[in-house]
Structures are given as C-alpha cells and as structure tokens.
C-alpha cells in the first residue's frame, strides 16, 4: 500500500508546484560561488567520505562534506550510501552545521566483511584492490594452497531486476575476473516477485512487467556475464561455469537459460512465467498483439539457444539444431497453447510437441491455458503439480536433461560436477557487492521519499511577499534537483511504485523546474 | 474520398524513396494521360499490373507519384523496357556485378581481407545506453555518409551488425536502397543478426548473406501505430509489396517475410538432398508459423533451413563462419561515424521530448494568462521552443512521427501563438 502511496505522492508533488503563486519579477536564487571555495580540481568527490552533518530548521538532516560557504549559502557534497550529489542551501534554512561529526569509517578504509554464499560468519578481510586475490583464501580465511581448484560462488538473490541489476552484476564480474577462479557457480535464489509484490510459487506471472521488463533486464544482465566468461582476455583460464538453481521464478527464470550447465537443488524451481501469448490481450489489433508476443518469445528462445549452444558456435549445425531441446522448454514456460511431451530413450529425453500418445510418453506441458478441459485444478496448482505452463522442479529438469544433477550443498554440487576433492570455495566480494547495492537502493528509495515529502512541505513563509515566494521556489528547485540526481543514479533498480517511474520522473522534474523558474519570472515585486 | 487521397499522398511520400531506389535518375520523357484528362510528363520508375510510380519534376524538385492503372487512360514511353520489378532487378544485378569488378580492380590489394563492422542499432554490449529505433537513432543517412570512409580504408567486407527493436517504416526503403545500390555494389555485404525486429528486420532484408548470433532473431514485421493499431488497407498492401521486392533483392523466399508481416502460416519441406522449399501453408514437413501467429525466425531455424549462413558470437567466429582465413579489422572511421550518429540522435531524441514538454508548458501558461505583458513573455519562450522543434524535425523528419508533431501541428501552433499575441 505504501508503495502506491508514494507514487501518488510524486504526482501530487508535481501538481503542488502551483501552490506558490505567480506574480512578480525575480532574481536568480541559486548558484552563488563562495569566497571560501575549495580548489575543485584537487577534489575527487567519489572518494570523499561523509564528514559533516547539516541540521535544518525543519528537522531534516543531510550528511556529507561542506565544500564551501558564503555569507548566505552553504554548498555541500551530499553523501547517501555510495551516492554523491552536490547541493547548495540557504543558511537561513539551516539550524546547525556539525563539522567533523563523522570519522572516516574503518569499514570503507580498511576491512570489510567478506561475502560469499558459503560464508560461515563475519570474517574480516582487506578491502579488495585486486591484490587480495594474489594469496586467495577460502571462506574460512584459510589460504588456498597452489594447485587447488578455486571455486567462486555468487548468489543472485532477492528480487531480480532490483537486488540483482546491471551495476552490481558488473562489479561482481570485475571481482570475478580479479579472482581468476577455476570454477564459477551462479546460484539462483530469488524471491518470486516484481517491484515489491511477492507472489506464490505455483503462480504464473505473465504480465508485461514480469515477462517484458524482466526479460529485457535478463538479456542486459547476460551481456555483462556471458561475454566476460567466454572472451575476456583478462581471464587467464576460461573457468568452468554452472548455474545452480534453487529459486528462479517469474522474470528470474530467464537468466539461467543462458548457462550451458545447470544444476538444481532438490527443492529447486525454475519457471512461473506463463502468459506470453496473452500479453496485451484486449489492446489494439490481434495482428499487432501477435507481433509483440512473437518477438518476445524469440528473445526467450534466443537465450535458450545461447545456453544450449553458445559456448561453441561451431556446434550449431543444422542437425544439432534440429534436436535442440532447450528452446522448447523455454517456450513451454511461456506459451499457453504450446504442448510438449517427452519419453526416455536410452536415458535421453525425446520430445514431441503434442500430447502423450502412449504410456511411455509423459506430459511436460498441455494446452490448459487455452483449453479448459486441460486446465490445472486448484489442487494440482498449489501442490506444484500443474502443467498449464512448464515450471521445472529438480526431478523433471534432471529427467529431461535440462539439469545435469541435483545438489543441496556446494560439496555435493562439486561432486556431481566431477570434482569430489581438490577444490576450495574462495572468499570473494560478490555477497558484499549485492548486499551493499540492495542496501543503497532501499536507502535511496527512502531518501527520495523524504525529499518528495520535504518538497511537498515547502511553504511560503510569512509575510508571503516576493522575497519569501522567491526563497520557497529556490527550495523547491533544490529538492527537485536532488531527487533528479539520486533517481538517475539508481534508475535501473528503483521501484517506480515507491519513487515514481524513473525515466518519466526525470523528464517531469526537468519540466517542473522550468515551470517554477517561469513562475519566478512572472512574479513581481510589489 | 478525402481520406483515400490523403492516404495516397502519404504513401507517395513514404514509398517514394523505394521507387527511386530501383532506377538511376534518367531524363524525364514518359507521358501519362489520366482518365480525367490530366497529362503528366515524367519518368516511369516502377510499375506493376495495377500501378505505376511516376517521377515528375517541378523546378529542381523531383517527386514520385503513385498512380493506379484504373485511373490511367494511356502511357507513352520513351524507353520500351517495362519497369517491372523483374526487369529492374535484372538491371540492378547486372550493374552491381559491373561495379563490383570495378571496385575490386581499384582496391588492388591482395593481403588480408579488410572487414568493417557497422552497428545497425546499439549492440547489447552497450547495455541499453542508447535507444535503437530505426529512423531515430539508426539513420540511413549515417550509413550513406560512411561509404566514402569505408572506401578510403579499402574495406572489402562490410558487416552490418543488427540489434534493434524496430522503428519507422519510412526509413526501410532508404536502407533497402543504400544496402542494395550503394553497399552491395562496392563491398561484400553481410548482416550479423543479434536481434532484428520489425523495421530492423525489413531494412537489411535485401542483404543476401546473413549470419546470426546464437541468440539471434529476425522478424515480427507487422506495421502498427498508437495503441497497437495495425497498418491496414492500401498502406499494408504497399508494405507487403515493398517487401516482396526486398525479398527478391535479398534472394529470399517472399513467403518468409509475409508471415512476419501478417498472420500467414509458414512451413518448410526439406527433400533428401537437403533442398529447402518454403511454403505459405501449414502443410510442410516443418511448421514454423501457425496461421494466426506472426513469425520471428530464431537462429536455430535460420541455420536449419539455410536462411542463415552461420552462427557467430564473436567477430572472430564470424570471420571463420564467413570463410575468411586472414582478416584485418578495418573501417574504424566509418564504425565511429555510425556509432556517433547513434549517440547523437539519441541525445537529440531525449532533448526533443523535453523541448516539446516545455513548449506545451509555455503555450499552456500563455493561454491562461490574462495579462498581455506576462503572456508575451511566455509566448516568446514558446516561439523559441517551437523554432527549436522545427529545426530538429528538419534535421530528422522522422521526429514528426516520433513526437507526434506533423507539419499541420506546427501550422496550428503558429496560428495559436498569433491569436494569443493579438489578444488585448
């Protein structure tokens, strides 16, 4: 509920701009350069740590670094998590500036907690500058002897598209390259949800958001993973790479498709998509709806092809392609009237795109979504036994050859991969990277909400004359500029229901700032 | 009647370039007499059983008119050769072969094959930094400007790397023309498909040699606008016909593109010798598209049925798939030009949206202000923003459609500003 409220808040905030009336000419309110200005060329804002605390008359607080001051204004580098943004405040709004309130954090300067899925507890390690992997240690901090196979485990958890998005994945891949592992394990452990809404595991979320938006995110994220693992010359030895699926549901189901070797946990599931052939139902003309569905299905099937053959393009012969299975599984996850059955011949799955014709054939997916006689019953749905759309469990995935095995621990996984011993799970920074990103995104959402409320709360001070109106507009513009700067930084992950749609919001802010300036121009000194 | 005439006018504009693509500008000496007595002098640039594209010249400006045979009384030809698609194609192929030989002898180098890669849309490794709309970020004009740079660097092979979700149909014939007439006559031209959807599939359709990324796809070419409303009637028919021509130029079975445009079935027979026969029905050995669906071809289907020549996920794999033993990556200046064009157009597009919003804000405010002086300030601002929009549309006419600001809209805005300025 709160989520939606904030979305409406933003709209109201934008509309609320008219509160300050337009009457009378003006003068510029912002951008004054101070006589105590620091030499900016010597400052690297990205490396500055928060030092000062600014407390405003209305109780708001801002943390950062005071860059310079004039008699009337203070210019501040506002620091929120890893975000840095400059802002100028009128001293009349400020109650107190607490200088050197924050000491340099040990965490960011020196030691940090390690992060890997197999962390056994808080472990300290030097912040990575690339040198820490010269003498790699395992997750318990013990040195990994030379000749031991180094296993880099990263968990993609939380909400796909938010907690796992482009920026942290890019950082994680950089860390992975520095680590020079022999084996990389991508563990998929996502919540089943989209933009803060959680759903149940047996559901199929064929909405535009789940299918289109997260599919595009998955494709974008893949471009940060696959090319690095295959072609990055910095990787001295191409690592063995596997996906280890615990929970990849809804939009999160797409990314594992691009991995050639897939394993499941015994309670693992991948799917929950569905409804691609119902996208845009009731909108426009049928032929255009079909077009939109067709291209999206092609994207999904493309990812499946990439996973099945991508490591060796030369293996994509006409014969191999005619026997390709993964794109059929991918289609079965998405397309309602598609039917897929299998039987086992010599331990290998043989597929046919029709209902089982004899007892040795098993149904993977029927046409339930378009044929009510075949629709899943509630009893089957809640027990994850439905087949209206394909959602892989560990057993079925293994039976049909989609999964290479089932493992509930890293030891078991490595054993199944043919590495029973001689390996060590290396301490790496992936867990920390994703944790910090999630924290920053949450913090930013809260911060933007606060800024919106502060912006909404701007009122003309008594006696409400030209000077007070000018001052109020200046404050409005500063809040909007701050919102714009923050949203831009985290646009890829912010929940638009909480902060307003990032892209539209940015455009809107720019126009609204222009509008406030116009009002100021029209305002008149009495 | 008005609507039909208007539709024809739009079609004439939209497809004029396609007509122009098929003939070099010759002297204008054909004469057409219409049934209403109108006499037109010009040049037949293309014709079919039921239509003629007729190029007329007024002053220094040439334009192509679409005429229906049923409206024509008589035709006097300066050149007896009919301008049917078949005849035009044969002439174009002969000319291309001659030009290729000429170009080869001019280059005269015998070392490694010099290969340039030009991005048709931002490849996915750019991480969505720029938009990839045909006619907005992806511009035929940029590809035209790249040609001298490719020639200067003695490029042998041009790879058009396609990654775009589509765009404006108006740009398709421009690309068809450039690829067919300008590139194929100078270079070995290949397409490397990561994703070519809609206009991004139709634009490079004339390229005969196609390779795919493992995840590659091409198709979904249904024309539409607004809230998923399909292109219909004569506009649709024109588009289907244009792509039949493009299919011929690209040596592709027209049934493939047709099932990408409208909900026609597509299936394939493969005989014992591996010969593939495409069928516009559901009765072939392999059903690729059911009736009622729109076809998007995947890499696996492209390879399996001989549509694509090979699969490659890196440029090295591509060179290998193309059978090149020694490769020198060349044409960087042309690659940079195309990339810069994508980035610049993207910036203009984003800026345009804001300018339009600001204009609407200013004109809206001016309408509300009773005070002439204050209204004048807003009107001055509106005029400046309108001029900026005009300038941008002149630079890239596709913005008219993209932003929904056609010429009539500008005229209406001028009138509105005038009226508001005249108020007391």
Q: What does this entry look like structurally?
A:
The complex is a heterodimer of chains A (526) and B (424). Chain A is α/β, with parallel strands linked by helices and 526 residues long. Chain A contains 14 helices and 19 strands. In chain A, helix 5 packs antiparallel against helix 7 (326-334) and helix 11 packs antiparallel against helix 12 (466-490). The longest helix of chain A is centred in the C-terminal third of the chain and has 27 residues, at 430-456. Chain A is globular and about 90 Å long. The two termini of chain A are 45 Å apart. Chain B has 424 residues and is of the alpha/beta class. Helix content of chain B is 46%, strand content 22%. Chain B contains 13 helices and 18 strands. Chain B has helices at residues 2-21, 85-107, 140-152, 171-183, 199-202, 233-249, 254-261, 299-304, 315-321, 332-368, 372-395, 398-402, 407-422, and strands at residues 30-34, 39-47, 51-58, 61-68, 72-76, 113-120, 157-164, 188-197, 209-212, 217-219, 224-225, 229-230, 266-270, 276-279, 286-289, 296-298, 310-311, 327-329. In chain B, strands 6, 7, 8, 9, 10, 16, 17 and 18 form an eight-stranded mixed sheet that branches. A five-stranded antiparallel sheet of chain B has the order 4-3-2-1-5. A three-stranded antiparallel sheet of chain B has the order 14-13-15. In chain B, helix 11 (372-395) packs antiparallel against helix 13 (407-422). The longest helix of chain B is centred in the last third of the chain and has 37 residues, at 332-368. Chain B starts with a helix and ends with a helix. The model of chain B is unreliable at 1-26 (pLDDT under 50). At the A-B interface, helix 4, helix 5, helix 6 and helix 14 of A face strand 12, strand 16, helix 8, strand 17 and helix 9 of B.
Question: Can you summarize this structure?
Answer:
By secondary structure, chain A is α/β, with parallel strands linked by helices.
């Amino acid at each position: 509920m709160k989520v939606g409220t904030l979305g409406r808040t933003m709209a109201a905030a934008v509309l609320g701009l008219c509160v300050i009336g337009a009457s009378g000419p003006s003068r510029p309110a912002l951008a004054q350069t101070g006589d105590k200005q620091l030499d900016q060329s010597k400052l690297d804002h990205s490396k500055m740590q928060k030092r000062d605390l600014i407390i405003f008359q209305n109780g708001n607080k801002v943390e950062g670094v005071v860059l310079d001051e004039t008699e009337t204004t203070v210019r501040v580098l506002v620091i929120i998590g890893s975000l840095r943004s400059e802002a100028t405040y009128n001293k009349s709004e400020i109650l107190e500036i607490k200088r050197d309130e924050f000491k340099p954090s040990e965490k960011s300067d020196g030691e940090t907690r390690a992060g890997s899925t197999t962390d056994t507890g808080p472990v300290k390690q030097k912040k990575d500058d690339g040198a820490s992997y010269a003498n790699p240690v395992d997750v318990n901090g013990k040195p990994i002897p030379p000749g031991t196979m180094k296993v880099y485990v990263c968990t993609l958890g939380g909400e796909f598209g938010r907690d796992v998005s482009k920026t942290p994945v890019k950082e994680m891949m950089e860390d992975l390259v520095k680590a020079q592992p022999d084996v990389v394990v991508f563990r998929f452990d996502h919540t089943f949800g989209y933009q803060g809404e959680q759903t149940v595991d047996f559901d199929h979320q064929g909405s535009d958001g789940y299918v289109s938006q997260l599919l595009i995110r998955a494709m974008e994220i893949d471009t940060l993973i696959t090319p690095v693992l295959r072609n990055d010359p910095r990787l001295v030895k191409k690592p063995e790479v596997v996906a280890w699926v615990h929970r990849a549901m809804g939009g999160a189901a797409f990314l594992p498709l691009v991995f050639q070797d897939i394993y499941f946990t015994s309670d693992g599931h991948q799917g929950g998509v569905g409804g691609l052939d119902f996208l845009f139902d009731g909108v426009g003309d049928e032929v255009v709806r079909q077009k939109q569905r067709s291209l999206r299905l092609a994207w999904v099937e493309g990812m499946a092809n990439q996973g099945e053959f991508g490591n060796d393009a030369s293996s994509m012969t006409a014969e191999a392609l005619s026997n390709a299975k993964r794109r059929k599984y991918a289609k079965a996850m998405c397309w309602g009237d598609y039917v897929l059955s299998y039987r086992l011949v010599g331990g290998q799955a043989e597929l046919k795109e029709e209902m089982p014709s004899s007892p040795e054939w098993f149904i993977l997916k029927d046409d339930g979504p378009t044929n009510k006689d075949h629709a899943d019953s509630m009893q089957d749905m809640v027990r994850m036994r439905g087949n209206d759309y394909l959602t892989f469990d560990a057993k079925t995935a293994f039976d049909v050859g989609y999964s290479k095995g089932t493992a509930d621990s890293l030891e078991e996984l490595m054993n199944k991969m043919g590495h029973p011993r001689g390996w060590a799970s290396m301490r790496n920074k992936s867990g920390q990277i994703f944790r910090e990103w999630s924290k920053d995104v949450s913090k930013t959402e809260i911060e933007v909400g606060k800024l919106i409320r502060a912006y909404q709360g701007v009122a003309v001070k008594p006696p409400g004359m030209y000077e007070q109106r000018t001052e109020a507009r200046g404050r409005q513009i500063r809040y909007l500029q701050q919102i714009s700067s923050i949203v831009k930084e985290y646009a890829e992950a912010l929940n638009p229901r909480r902060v307003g749609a990032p892209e539209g919001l940015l455009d809107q802010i720019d126009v609204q700032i222009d509008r406030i300036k116009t009002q100021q121009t029209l305002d008149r000194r009495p | 009647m008005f609507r039909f005439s208007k539709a024809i006018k739009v079609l004439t504009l939209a497809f004029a370039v396609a007509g122009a693509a098929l003939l070099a500008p010759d002297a204008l000496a054909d004469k057409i007499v219409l049934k209403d007595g109108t006499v037109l002098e010009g040049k037949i640039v293309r014709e079919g059983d039921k239509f003629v594209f007729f190029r007329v010249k007024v002053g220094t400006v040439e334009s192509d008119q679409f005429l229906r045979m049923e409206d024509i009384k008589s035709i006097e030809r300066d050149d007896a050769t009919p301008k049917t698609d078949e005849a035009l194609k044969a002439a174009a192929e002969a000319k291309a072969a001659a030009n290729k030989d000429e170009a080869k002898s001019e280059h005269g180098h015998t070392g490694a094959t010099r290969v340039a890669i030009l991005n048709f849309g931002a490849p996915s490794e750019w991480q969505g930094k720029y938009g990839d709309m045909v006619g907005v970020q992806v511009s035929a004009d940029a590809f035209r400007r790249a040609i001298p740079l490719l020639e200067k660097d003695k490029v042998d092979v041009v790879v058009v790397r396609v990654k775009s979700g589509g765009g404006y149909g108006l740009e398709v014939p421009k690309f068809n023309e450039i690829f067919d007439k300008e590139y194929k006559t100078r270079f070995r031209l290949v397409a490397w498909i990561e994703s070519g959807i809609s206009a991004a599939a139709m634009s490079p359709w004339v390229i005969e040699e196609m390779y795919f990324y493992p995840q590659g796809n091409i198709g979904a070419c249904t024309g539409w606008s607004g809230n998923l409303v399909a292109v219909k009637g004569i506009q649709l028919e024109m588009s289907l016909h244009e792509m039949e021509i493009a299919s011929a130029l690209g040596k592709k079975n027209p049934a493939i593109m047709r099932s990408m445009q409208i909900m026609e079935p597509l299936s394939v027979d493969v005989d014992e010798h591996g010969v593939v026969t495409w069928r516009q029905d559901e009765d072939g050995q392999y059903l690729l598209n059911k009736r009622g669906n729109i076809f998007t071809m995947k890499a696996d289907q492209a390879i399996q049925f001989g549509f694509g020549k090979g699969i490659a996920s890196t440029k090295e794999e591509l060179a290998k798939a193309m059978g090149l033993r020694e490769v020198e990556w060349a044409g960087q200046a042309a690659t940079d030009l195309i990339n810069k064009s994508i980035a610049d157009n993207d910036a203009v597009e984003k800026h345009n949206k804001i300018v339009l919003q600001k204009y609407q804000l200013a004109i809206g405010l001016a309408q509300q202000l009773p005070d002439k002086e204050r209204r004048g300030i807003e009107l001055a601002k509106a005029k400046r923003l309108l001029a900026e929009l005009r300038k941008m549309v002149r630079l890239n006419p596709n913005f008219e459609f993209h932003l929904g600001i056609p010429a009539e809209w500008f005229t209406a805005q001028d009138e509105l500003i005038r009226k508001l300025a005249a108020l007391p």
